[in-house]
Amino acid sequence: MRVGVLGGGQLARMLALAGHPLGISCTVLDPAADACAGPVGELLVAPYDDPDGLDRLAAASDVVTFEFESVPAASAERLARRVAVQPPPLALEVAQDRLSEKTLFAELGIETARFRAIGSQADLDDAAGELPAVLKTRRLGYDGKGQLVLREAAETRDAFAALGGVPQILEELVPFDREVSIVAARSAKGDIASYPLVENHHRDGILRITHAPAPRLEPELQDLAERYARLVMERLDYVGVLAVELFQVGERLLANELAPRVHNSGHWSIEGAETSQFENHMRAVCGLPLGSTELWAPCTMVNLIGGVPALADLAAIEDAHVHLYGKAPRPGRKVGHVTVTGGRSWKGVAELAESAGAAAP
Amino acid sequence: MRVGVLGGGQLARMLALAGHPLGISCTVLDPAADACAGPVGELLVAPYDDPDGLDRLAAASDVVTFEFESVPAASAERLARRVAVQPPPLALEVAQDRLSEKTLFAELGIETARFRAIGSQADLDDAAGELPAVLKTRRLGYDGKGQLVLREAAETRDAFAALGGVPQILEELVPFDREVSIVAARSAKGDIASYPLVENHHRDGILRITHAPAPRLEPELQDLAERYARLVMERLDYVGVLAVELFQVGERLLANELAPRVHNSGHWSIEGAETSQFENHMRAVCGLPLGSTELWAPCTMVNLIGGVPALADLAAIEDAHVHLYGKAPRPGRKVGHVTVTGGRSWKGVAELAESAGAAAP
After folding, report:
1. Cross-chain residue pair A311–B22, CB shorter than 8 Å
2. Which of A30, A33, A346, A58 is nearest to A201 (CA)?
3. Which of residues 17-36 of B touch A (CB under 8 A)?
4. Which pLDDT value is given to residue B141?
5. Residue spans of alpha helices (H) in chain A
6. A295 close contact with B: CB closer than 8 A
7. d(CA B70, CA B252)
8. Is the CB of residue A344 less than 8 Å away from at least one CB of chain B?
9. A311-315 contact pairs (CB < 8 A, 24+)
């Protein structure tokens, strides 16, 4: 099988690495000639909206998938006219608009923070009684960008313009216990397999650490998260791996975001689960049965942000599994991750990661 | 780091796949333009004794290693004058001559079957009283080629010529309980880590199935095997992964062969151990600390010989981890392997492998 991937970053790189043992080769399309998936697959260098590039990707692939959700709608449509596309473009459409996403959750009976569409400063002025809240652009926000926390009415003034005057959504600021996420896969036949719910720690809007499974995970909470993922995947006739980011509030889970792709909070599955999220995504989009998502070992995943510690230092830490992406270090850029199995040595890794990130140019 | 590999087959392919997450890139030298490691690294197409090809490999590498032991001595020397070479060329020299290998074992006090050098038909006639025995060419034998089992004196007639009249070795045919092997790694600092002893099943001289660990493995037997590997590696100042193939006779282990490289009987370690033999070989030759060889799950590895079953059939088997090499099927050719964790489902895989192999053209 030949899988095309729109985007040639670390997610495409790890998909390609998971594909090789299955005899699945990847062609990735990326605007950057040094895209980090290049060395492990075929790289087509072209903008994501370049008709010729898209057509070459389609011609080189039996099925095309995505490593990011903000794919231009016209590109997804063009691909879908020429080649199988999984997950379905509808999933991209929903996930790239926070209002569609939240509306889908609401329609499916999936609990969320209260939200309302904001189309103008006047809409925002009307909502002054609903603070504290987070104002977000509906589209193209990620890693904490395109967001404003509004705690007092005075802060709403000019906030609509501060976010560029584009369509926005105002979401209630919920005092949550922790951030968690569920990663699940659905096969072309409709079988679903879910990984354990994990606990995520962000800073500056960027994921830093994931504990898998989430500590003190009750079966009821796992069931609830699996139900959310299943409802979304069945509604979208989804094929592939999907992540749902959630806030835990007591025994409740409020859905925050969808990621219609493999997800940073699932990287631990390379070592910690019988089958990784990357292999299961490849299996799903290629029409193969899913592999078991059974937990093999509790893990902590530490992202390497902005800089890479000395490889010898990382390799010397017991049970540390190093994943470097081959990307040039830049402040705030994800350049690798380390998964520590067994729960003992991750703090040492986190310290190394911090100092390397702080030393970034 | 940049690692050069002489040979671009499945071992180089799996080394390259293990290297990418560590930020280690591989350049492989192989005479075949379709060498199966090509898609996961840089491929230099040249004969193994081509000076220009060797020099290009050396120039592209911080360290050069090998996926097979029958490297021409002049090639190893040429590389070693230009770039670091690990394991040391001496290990290749020993391993590519069965007499040197057995002599080394004897010098180190490692038990073997009785053996004697055969340089002529007259030598063989002298040894007629030592049958049953196996006559082997000293060099370039593998997968059961270049061997004759001699049970009666009459069979020795013309046997020297039948094996090409090259230098040979006659080894006592020992009635053994089972074939086992140990894979171990030694770092540049001299640290050693060993995988559990495994049980191997051959047919027609080709490895078919490995059970890891070997069933009913007593700690004393593991200790003995680890001692053998350690003695060999320390004597050779070895850096990298090494395998010793052994016959078990009661509580004794008779050393049969060295493989100064990653080994087919260690493929299970990709899933079954904390760190795979491929990653540990890369760590060792790059001067990094070794990773833990701790067992994660008992495994059975089934080789795919001559043909590949339908991927969907393999993927449907619980706990089956598929590794295809991207090689064209040919009778007797290793084209992939499947590692089954947990010991339950391997027979189903073995049946699929048998029927695909039998269907080979």
Report:
1. yes
2. A346
3. 17, 20-23, 25
4. 59
5. 10-19, 51-59, 73-82, 89-95, 98-107, 121-126, 153-156, 159-162, 219-235, 269-272, 277-285, 311-315, 346-358
6. no
7. 29
8. no
9. A311/B1, A311/B22, A311/B23, A311/B288, A312/B287, A312/B288, A312/B289, A313/A352, A314/A338, A314/A349, A314/A352, A315/B22, A315/B283, A315/B288, A315/B289, A315/B291
Q: B22–A312: do the CB atoms touch at under 8 Å?
A: no
Q: Please name the CATH architecture into which domain B2-85 falls.
A: 3-Layer(aba) Sandwich (3.40)
Which are the contacts of B256, defined by CB distance < 8 A and separation ≥ 6?
B112, B113, B179, B245, B246, B247
Selected for mutation to probe chain B from A296, A311, A337 (highest B CB count within 10 Å) is: A311
Whole-complex ipTM: 0.94
Q: Which of B3, B10, B20 should be substituted to probe chain A, the one whose Cβ sees the most A Cβ atoms within 10 Å? A: B20
Per-residue pLDDT of chain A (361 residues; tens, 9 = 90+): 999 999 999 999 999 999 999 999 999 999 999 999 999 999 999 999 999 999 999 999 999 999 999 899 899 999 999 999 999 999 999 999 999 999 999 999 999 999 999 999 999 999 988 999 999 999 875 555 688 999 998 899 899 999 999 999 999 999 999 999 999 999 999 999 999 999 999 998 899 999 999 999 999 999 999 999 999 999 999 999 999 999 999 999 999 999 999 999 999 999 999 999 999 999 999 999 999 999 999 999 999 999 999 999 999 998 999 999 999 999 999 999 999 998 778 999 999 999 998 775 5
Listed as ranges, residues in chain B with pLDDT below 50 are none
Interface test with B, best of A22, A314, A327, A349 (most B CBs within 10 A): A22
A206-212 and A299-305 strand pairing:
antiparallel
Is A315 in contact with B17 (Cβ distance < 8 A)?
no
The DSSP element (H or E) to which A182 belongs, if any, is strand A178-186
| pLDDT the model gives residue B360 | 59
CB-based contact B318 A292, cutoff 8 Å: yes
Helix (H, G, I), strand (E, B) or coil at A160: helix
Instruction: Say if residues A49 and A74 touch (Cβ distance below 8 Å).
Output: yes
Looking at domain A178-358, does it have CATH number 3.30.470.20? Answer: yes
pLDDT of residue B358: 79
- CB-nearest partner of A311 from B23, B318, B323: B23
* DSSP one-letter string for B63-76: EEEES-S---HHHH
Instruction: Determine contact: A355 vs chain B, CB below 8 A.
Output: no
Pairing of strands A25-30, A2-6: parallel
Domain residues of chain A, as ranges?
Answer: 2-85, 114-172, 178-358
CB of A292 less than 8 A from some CB of B: yes
pLDDT at residue number A143: 54
Q: What is the pLDDT of residues B148-205, one digit of tens each?
A: 999 998 899 899 999 999 999 999 999 999 999 999 999 999 999 999 999 999 998 8
Which of A13, A296, A318 is closest, CB to CB, to B296? A296
- Distance from the Cα of B135 to chain A's closest Cα (Å) equals 38
Surface of B (248-277) touching A: CB under 8 A: 274
Of B21, B289, B318, the CB nearest to A323: B21
Q: Kindly state which CATH superfamily the domain A114-172 is placed in.
A: ATP-grasp fold, A domain (3.30.1490.20)
B121 burial class (0-12, 13-18, 19+ CB within 10 angstroms)? middle
- B282: nearest CA partner in chain A: A315
Q: Do A21 and B17 touch (CB under 8 A)?
A: yes
pTM given for the model: 0.95
